[in-house]
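Render this sequence as a predicted structure.
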Amino acid sequence: MRANKIQAIADNAYGTVLESGAVRFERLLPGPIERVWAYLVEGEKRATWFCGGDAEPRTGGKLDLFFMHSRITGERPPESARKMNDEGWLSGGTVTAFEPPHRFAFNWVGMGEPDSDIEFVLSQAGDKVRLVLTHRRLVTKDRMAIVSSGWHLHLGLLEDQLLGQTPRGFWSAHEALKAEYVERQRDVG
């Protein structure tokens, strides 16, 4: 019974496929909500768990996404990610919703064709903050698996930041988690 409960909790951390090309994640995080919001929209804080870069605080504003994974993990990356890890990689987009401290959404340009859409929604859940992340327009199963495993790991790093914990592994878990998301896609068709 205990093993089933632990597996159910672990399964809950996985993203859920909403429709073809869309994945949704839900997390309960330590608040307050304004603190979680700051980790989504402030480049220096966002850089500790996902990517840095400025975000114009308005719908229609410009968004820079600067990825440098050496800032979020001390683990050695695979060769395919070495340049991004060591030198960084800049992409960006447009803010499509900016409703502090509840909704932040953007169109992500440069991650693949077509551009994709990301939405974060925050709400109070007792003494916690419910974060719901939806990523849409992921047109291939490979893109879906890469993005899903990436968000899974990045959201874990966000939780670590909010809890003041040592960040968990990123590269050490990435390939196995990507394979798990590939397998989960087979299960849903």
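Summary. Confidence is low (pLDDT under 50) at residues 1-11. The helical segments are 2-12, 33-41, 43-46, 82-87, 141-163, 171-188.
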